[in-house]
Design brief:
Layout (H helix, E strand, L loop, with lengths): L1 E7 L3 E7 L3 E8 L5 E9 L3 E7 L2 E7 L3 E7 L3 H55 L6 H21 L9 H8 L3 H23 L4 H4 L5 H23 L4 H19 L6 H13 L3 H19 L1
Helix pairs in contact: 1-2, 1-4, 1-6, 2-3, 3-4, 4-6, 6-7, 6-9, 7-8, 8-9
């Protein structure tokens, strides 16, 4: 905090005080019991410009309309000190505003990236399901084409460079090799998981105050993996389905609590239980995914 005696034109003599958030000018009032009366309280965020001339500091700020106040400060040393501090506070505020705006842009891009990534993950798991048992290769090729289109969208929306390797998967499908295609599909899924895991370790305090942030994104991706793993497990008769359902619901509940999502994970649980009961029908898989997307919809708007 910096304080100095000053004169405000058309008001008179008083005290000018700079706090972390405000530039305040107050005068002494009263004959017998003196008290301070605030004449100006200018939020640093409202200051448009500062100008120092010989013996004065000119402050232009936005209230109901734009005002310019000129403070006369006789002490040159104090004038320089309060001007320097006010300028520094204004620069810090503008830097914070810019960082918040940048964080909001990152959040919007991250939401868009997540929306497409979920589709891409679903497509890869559909491919894994289609590669189990008798393989209908034209269908697998259609899934590959869909995935590659979604992957291009992921690259365009992501704020971080995405460099997943797709050529090997294409070659395996072209060569009609189910084992290799499964291997490469899993490899891409691993890369996607690692990408969002590394992203979650990036520190950005301004983005952390928003949703979705990098941590949210990683949780969404993990939940999407578990959901699809359940659908795949039903296909191959995996005995760990109940354990995975519990893990998924817990993850979704934690995500909802952390981000104030107004949704109930039990709707997802119900759809998955139906999937387990009915088996790997297209309708049951689509319904479980739809309920999952409804649960996280508030993050992706």
């Amino acid at each position: 905090m910096v304080t100095c005696e000053a004169t405000l034109e058309e008001v008179g003599e008083g005290t000018l005080e700079l706090t972390e958030q405000y530039l305040i000018f107050y005068v002494k009032k009263g004959f017998f019991t003196k008290h301070d009366e605030v004449v100006r309280e200018i939020n640093i965020a409202d200051i448009k410009s500062l100008k120092q001339t010989e013996g004065t500091m000119e402050v232009t700020w936005k209230g109901v309309e734009t005002f310019t106040d000129t403070f006369v400060i006789d002490n040159a040393e104090l004038l320089a000190a309060i001007y320097k501090s006010a300028t520094k506070s204004l620069e810090k505020h503008r830097e914070t505003v810019k960082k918040k705006a940048d964080a909001e842009q990152k959040r919007d891009k991250l939401a868009a990236t997540l929306t497409i990534t979920i589709k891409a993950i679903n497509t890869l798991f559909d491919m894994l399901i289609s590669l189990n048992g008798k393989v209908i290769w034209p269908h697998v090729e259609n899934l590959q084409e869909t995935f590659e289109k979604d992957f291009d969208k992921v690259k365009k929306t992501s704020t971080e460079k995405v460099t997943f390797k797709l050529d090997e998967l294409g070659s395996a499908i072209e060569n009609r090799s189910p084992e290799e295609a499964v291997k490469e599909a899993y490899s891409i899924l691993k890369e996607i998981h690692e990408f969002f895991s590394k992203l979650a370790s990036v520190k950005d305090k301004f983005l952390e105050e928003l949703h979705p942030n990098y941590s949210d994104a990683f949780q969404v991706v993990q939940a999407c993996y578990v959901l699809n793993d359940i659908a795949l497990a039903v296909t191959v008769a995996d005995e760990k389905v109940e354990e995975e359902i519990t893990t998924l619901v817990a993850t979704l509940e934690n995500l909802a609590n952390k981000t104030n999502l107004k949704t109930d994970a039990n709707a997802v649980r119900s759809a998955i239980n139906k999937l387990v009961t009915e088996g790997k029908t297209r309708k049951a898989i689509d319904e479980s995914r739809r309920k999952f997307e409804e649960h996280i919809e508030g993050l992706l708007l």
